[in-house]
Amino acid sequence: MEVNNRLWVKRLSLSQQLIVLIVCFVSFFAVFFFIFVNSNVNNYTEEQMFTQLSETQDNLSYIYHSVDVDTTQLAQNDNRMIDSYFFKRDNEGIYHVEYHADGLKDDKKIYADVYNNLLVQDAIQKGPLGVFYEDESIARVYPGNKYTYYSIRMLEDDVVLVSLLNNAYINEFKSTFVENVIDITVFVVGLFFVIMMLWVGNIIRPLHIIKNYIDRIRVGKEATMKINRKDEIGEVAEALVTMQEELNKQEKTKEEMIHNISHDLKTPIATIKSYGESIKDGIYPYDTLEKSVDVIIDNANRLEKKVRSLLFMNRVEYILSQDSDEIVTDMRDVVDTVVLNTKVIRPEIEIEKNTMSSLFRGNEEAWRVCVENLLENALRYAKTQIVITLDEEQLCIYNDGEQIPEEILPTLFKPYEKGRDGQFGLGLSIVSKVVHSANYKVVAENVETGGVIFKIRLNSTDAHLT
């Protein structure tokens, strides 16, 4: 079920995912509002109402103590939503309402509740542990029809101020508060939605450009792409453009290489064919039968080498994909074997070996082909000498031939690249594949005193094999 849900989400576009996100956000906020906010609005309203009562009584108390004013006029100047009453106690201890008596007595229940509280507070005040002191308030909640909250404050020993808050004001305050919260919520959600839509649009637009660019490349059409962004999308777009340029370059180089390989294969085949036909007719194209056969053998060897390189290039991925993590090869044995087999190519070149037993991780056949390609490359360009050095850390093959142009060095190990003599080859690309598959690295460097050296060594993060 969880997998199906994930697949369902993945089928949605970014815009649809955004809409789902907004709906979930609004639903969650609605539940939160009605459960949490609605449950707290009464508490907030009650707090605000008692604050209003307290401020009203503070003002009336201040005026009462500082100005000689009639209590009737004082009460009439009060807040229209708060009804204030002055209760005065006579000599017999009975409280009388000096103002608004008829209006208060209309609500007999609250009048009785207020009056009973006056008597209770009066009894406490007269007792030995009186707590109702002058100018202190007692706030009460009364579930009446017209009034809900009221507050009692003693102004003098025989004068008490009672303020009652009208239900109409309470309901109006609560309604206004809830409406404001809803308005703010709608505004925030709307603003959030607009910002998210702009943000998603800013993402979708370059993605569509990238998709169109890839579609045109896929069908072989010319395509250009310019996305002026510095974020991850811009990096992807730049990488795609760079990749396309590299692929175009490799495709062009591959076509040229295929043409050259075809020519390289055609030449020895034509030579072998023509020499064979001539010998069959009793004609020796190269003076004698033995020399003519030597030409055929030499061209056959050239042809075999070309075919073997092409076949191994196709097989190298399979060979390197085999599990060889626990296989190690003694590179001294590999070097000795390769030198013995290849030194006959140019016997006049001195091959000096400074080798010791050293274990390299990887398949022996792959390492043999790797060293063979490096040594044949060295024999091709060496003038008089090749030096092979092998220790526990690296394998180095030096030749005293001409140095490699600096502009060629960065692409020397890429497939289908031209060499320094302008010809194509797969040898060094095979070397690179073998070396990197075993987690080694290979570099070519020009030597200051002359010549070129190829080095194969462990990556710095790998431990040495013992």
Question: Which descriptors apply to this entry?
Answer:
466 residues, alpha+beta, Helix Hairpins, Heat Shock Protein 90, 3 domains, 5-stranded antiparallel β-sheet, 5-stranded mixed β-sheet, 11 helices, rod-shaped, histidine kinase
Biggest β-sheet, characterized? Answer: 5 strands, antiparallel
CA distance, first residue to last residue: 52 Å
Beta-strand residue fraction? 15-25%
Round the Cα radius of gyration to an integer and report it: 49 Å
The H/E string reads: HHHEEHHEEEHHHEHEEHEEHEE
Quick one: overall form?
Answer: rod-shaped
Helix content: 55-70%
- Low-confidence spans: 124-136
- Put simply, the count of helices is 11
Question: How many strand segments?
Answer: 12
* Average predicted confidence as pLDDT: 76
Count up the domains.
3
Structural class: alpha+beta
Brief sketch in words of this structure:
With 466 residues, this protein is an alpha+beta fold. It has 11 helices and 12 strands. It holds the Pfam family HATPase_c.
Describe this structure in words.
The chain has 3 domains: 12-221, no CATH class; 249-305, Signal transduction histidine kinase, dimerisation/phosphotransfer (DHp) domain (Helix Hairpins); 324-458, Histidine kinase-like ATPase, C-terminal domain (Heat Shock Protein 90, 2-Layer Sandwich), CATH 3.30.565.10. The protein is built from 11 helices and 12 strands. The chain has helices spanning 2-10, 14-66, 71-76, 101-106, 108-126, 167-218, 232-280, 289-321, 331-342, 364-381, 427-437; strands at residues 82-89, 95-97, 137-141, 147-156, 159-166, 328-330, 350-355, 359-361, 385-390, 394-399, 440-446, 452-458. The model is unreliable at 124-136 (pLDDT under 50).
